[in-house]
Every structure is written in structure tokens, then in C-alpha cells.
Design goal:
The protein is an alpha+beta fold. Helix content is 52%, strand content 17%.
Amino acid sequence: MRTLKPSELGGGRLIASYSAKLAESIAVRRAELAARAARAEAELSIRARSEFLANMNHELRTPLNAIIGFTTMLREGDSYQLSEEQRKSYAEYVIQSADLLLAHINTLLEAAALDSGSVAVRKGEVDLALILQESIGRARVAAGAAEVSIEDKTSGDLPSGWGDAERLGQAADHLLRMAIRATPKGGKIFARAARSPKGAVEIALRDHGPGLSAEAVRQALGVFDEVHRELDRSFAGPGIGLAIAKTFVEMQGGTFEIKSKVGEGTVVRMSVPNAEPAAVDEPAVLRKTGTGD
């Protein structure tokens, strides 16, 4: 029996049919791979969030337990026969624990707002020198507890920036706390508001801690990634604060830069555009576009 040539079967319909089935098979396979990748990414995201919440549960309970314990001792000071020096010391522990607890709660609220997909931003003229000064004031309790000092090196008049003062203050708070955790006892953190090399206004922070590897920086810039998961200062990494700070700055059209080297410390710079006299101060809700590089 003679074998029919493809050209004899309706002008190549056999080849066309085979090609269509092959293309359909490839499309199905690609869809399966894409679904598998999306499922794996979702599972990793859920696992990361679970680990983050489990760790945050520990970090919230620790200072809260300290507050309850030390305030109870202060209330019953006569029974414990506390000296005046002990009372002052315990009161200082309460203040430090409350400050740490407030910082954790603020971080949780900020992370939740970012993860929900929308954050309100109101732009206007901002004084970065004042923002830095106020942030240093808020960080003094944490710095005192860690026995490190913060030196403000800002000098001279600076032009106004254009951004959201509240969000920039939150970003500066996270960066200062990261620097405090990284700095050894007796160390110094240098901070300043200045002109950036590109002419914008910026806040720069430098610590002389152990520094971060390139991989640690990459992980830290993910909202729910953490380099370390312990409260002990010798193991405390930047947590999610670095990612939140970066997101807040970039949402305002600013730039965020981190340079770190293991054994030499870390320098972080955040800048915003110069003020625009003709710009209108309008509230806006910006959608989250991601927090990684």
C-alpha cells in the first residue's frame, strides 16, 4: 500500500495538526511550571511571615515581661527593701523596656500597612536637619541602654527637601536603631544632614559595627526577611527596619543607598528631591511596588 505524502493530505494539514498539538503541549507545560513556581513562592512567603510573627511574638513578650516585673518590684519596694539607687535603676529598666516595646509595635504597624498595599503619603517642604535631630532625640533611650553615643555632624544651612516628614522620620528611626544594635559598647554613631553629591539633601548615618555581607544586605531589604532571629545584641541584625526605611524613602521619589563591609561597619544614605516652590501639598495613597532591590 502506498504511503501518502503530507502534501497529499489536504496541503499539509497533517503537519499543521501536529504543530498545533505540539504548541498546545508546550503551552500546558509552561502553565504547569508557572503555577508550580507561584505555589512555591507563596509557600515561602507564608513560611517567612510565620517565622516573622513567631519571632515578633518573642520580642514583644520580652520587654513587656520586664515592664511588669520591674514595676511590680517598684510598687512593693518596701517589701524588697530597695535602696534609692536600686529604684532608679529599675525605673530605668522600665523606661528602656517600654521604649523597645514601642519600637516593636511601630514596626509591626508599619509592616502591616506596607503589606496591605497602600500607605498614605503627604508631601511638602521638609527640614532634614530637624528630622534627624528629632530622630536622635527619640533614639537616646535605646542608645543609653546600649551604651553608645550618637554624634550629629550636621553643619551649615541646608535647602529644604520635598517629601513626607513623618515617613522620613520613621525611616530615620529605623536606621538609627539598626546602627545602635550594630555598634559595640562605648562606640559612636555619626549622623548628619547634608547635600548629597548629586545636589539633593540627604541624611547619612555611619556605624563602626561588624558590618553586613552583600547577601545579608539583600536579605535585610526583604520586608519579612531577617538576618538573625535573636534578641541578644551580639546576634541582632537589621531585621525588617532597613526594608521599611528604604520603602518609605523610595515611595517619595527619594533614593536609598547602603554600603557595608564585614569588619568595617555600615554607611546608609537616604535623600529626597529639593523642595519645589510651585508644587502643591496634596495627600496621596501610593501603591506598594516592592521593597527589594
